[in-house]
Design a protein that fits this description.
It is a single chain. The chain is α+β, with helices and mostly antiparallel strands. Helix content is about 20%, strand content about 40%. The protein has a 9-stranded antiparallel sheet with strand order 4-3-2-1-9-8-7-6-5, with no helix packed on it. The protein is globular. The relative contact order is 0.16.
Length: about 140
Amino acid sequence: MQGQGIAISLVLGLSLPIVADVSVQSQAVANLAFPEGEFFDVEGQPRNWHLTLWQAKGQYYYKNLNLKTGKKLCLIGGKASGTKARPVFTWTNAKYKYRVSWQTVQPELVRLEVIDPSGKVILNQFLVREPGEFENPNATQC
């Protein structure tokens, strides 16, 4: 009987650090910096994209306008991952993933990736932050 109690104590004792580690990781992800702003293609490249990122009411928002076609996509509820130095935010729409990553030491530059349902990256583009904060009042509306 005493052997069972020791075995249970060992199992519980070994599992507690794992649970504590998971909760610390979740807290760290929740504290990642988010690259709010309006982003365009890097200078010298044709202007194809106008990406707007913002957060409100605990949600991450993604709005992208294709400047060639005029098509717009707005997504709500991005998921945070990555590290404090390189946060990654991912939105999903119809099995496509829209991933924005950046390095906090370069806040003016983000990488936009679009991943198709098979996992193939179909867009991998650097975008640069436009100076100013949401000059268009409709910028942060879907």
